[in-house]
Design brief:
The chain has 15 helices and 14 strands. By secondary structure, the protein is α/β, with parallel strands linked by helices.
């Protein structure tokens, strides 16, 4: 078999469907967030970024940068090994203690990414619990789905954010089965928020453990930045809380927090933790400083929420199909992959605005969108320019205003 034509045909299929992914060649500039330099068509120009997951701009916070510079000078670039073999740096230990305290848990464990922490923790727990059944929200992230699949445990999918459907499935499950209820707090594409209390009530009634992904909420919600469960005083109800260090905290890495026994179990059995090089101490030092800062500062969170609400209001007044939600995420429904790609290109070429198109498989076919993520550092003038640019882009692309 000649393999190259196969690969070329599969890539062409993505192009034909309007799903071929084009990476923006960016240079983020310290002190100029949310602006960035983009290299495009042989030229370099400044753009305003409206789709970053650096939700609070912590990747350029002076405290974070200073902590990373000091760690680099003191300890070098890399960890030097796996956590088990010479790779545990003191910053790892301090960061895990800080994250455990953030969520009111006994212990925490850091990974190289949020994807890895979900995949490793879920696959390990579900594979080892006797007769495990995983009850997974229909909209759970790919990393959670991968972890469940890798565990080879039985799984059932309950309707998105539907406690009644979860209860129906749990009530029909064998009484002696190990039951794991898996869901997110903020769903990143629609921006909707899980009914955490109701899901915990049902899980408790049927003796199930609860696993929550707070990736799009940690740093952003709660008095200390512990996520939606922190805001709603529900952290103690959750068996395991998973989060990221790469979004609200602005650095890189993932983690889980839970009881000492559970975290020790994952540490001892998760292959994706045991056999990979530890997170750089430079990254751990930066994340540690970011977590500590956001535990005591609500300034970034308050500005973030204000700007998200303001942008939603301006877009609604402009007649745009904003998908309703209670979070900071602002999705604009387009509904066609080619139109979505064209709109993104038009905004970049004509208005120096960068918004990445979101297509299948990230979202279901027919729900393609532009996902806007305002930060504390976007100004009202930035928002007005964005709305004006979107008016022109919607007209140029022939996109309907109503959802």
């Amino acid at each position: 078999m000649s393999f190259e034509p196969f690969f070329e045909q599969k890539v062409q299929q993505l192009r034909d469907e309007g799903r071929y992914r084009v990476f923006a060649d960016l240079e983020r500039v310290v002190g100029n967030f949310p602006r960035a330099q983009v290299h495009r068509n042989g030229e370099t120009k400044e753009v305003t970024v409206w789709c970053s997951n650096d939700y609070l701009g912590m990747a350029q916070h002076p405290k974070v940068l200073d902590a990373m510079h000091r760690a680099l000078d003191a300890h070098g670039a890399g960890a030097g090994g796996t956590r088990n073999i010479s790779g545990t740096n003191h910053f790892h230990v301090l960061l895990e203690q800080e994250l455990a305290e953030l969520h009111g848990k006994e212990a925490a464990l850091i990974f190289t990414s949020g994807y890895v922490s979900n995949m490793a923790a879920l696959s390990t727990i579900a594979a080892h619990l006797p007769d495990a059944i995983v009850f997974s929200d229909a909209d759970n992230h790919a990393s959670m789905i991968e972890g469940i699949r890798h565990s080879r445990a039985n799984k059932q999918i309950f309707r998105h954010n539907d406690p009644k459907d979860l209860e129906r499935q749990l009530s029909a499950a064998p009484a002696n089965a190990s039951k794991i209820v898996v869901f997110e707090s903020v769903y990143s594409m629609d921006g909707d928020i899980a009914p955490i209390k109701e899901l915990c009530d049902i899980a408790d009634h049927y003796g199930a453990i609860t696993y929550i992904d707070e990736v799009h909420a940690v740093g952003l919600y709660g008095n200390k930045g512990g996520g939606i469960s922190d805001r709603e005083n529900l952290s103690e109800r959750l068996t395991l809380i998973e989060g990221t260090l790469a979004k609200g905290f602005g650095v890189m890495g993932g983690y889980v927090a839970g009881s000492a026994a559970l975290i020790d179990f994952i540490r001892g059995y998760a292959s994706a933790f045991i056999f990979t090089t530890a997170l750089s101490p430079v990254l751990a030092a930066g994340a540690l400083e970011s977590v500590r800062h956001l535990k005591s500062s609500n300034v970034e969170r308050d500005l973030h929420q204000r700007n998200a609400a303001m942008l939603k209001q301006k877009l609604k007044l402009g007649g745009f199909p904003v998908i309703e939600n209670e979070s900071h995420i602002v999705p604009l429904l387009v509904g066609n992959p080619s139109c979505c790609f064209y709109a993104s290109e038009h905004l970049m070429d004509h208005f120096d605005i960068y918004v990445q198109p979101i297509n299948y498989p990230t979202v279901p076919r027919g729900t393609e969108r532009l996902r806007l993520t305002p930060t504390p550092y976007h100004t009202e003038e930035d928002m007005d320019k964005l709305v004006e640019a979107l008016q022109s882009t919607w007209q140029a692309c022939g996109i309907r205003k109503t959802a």
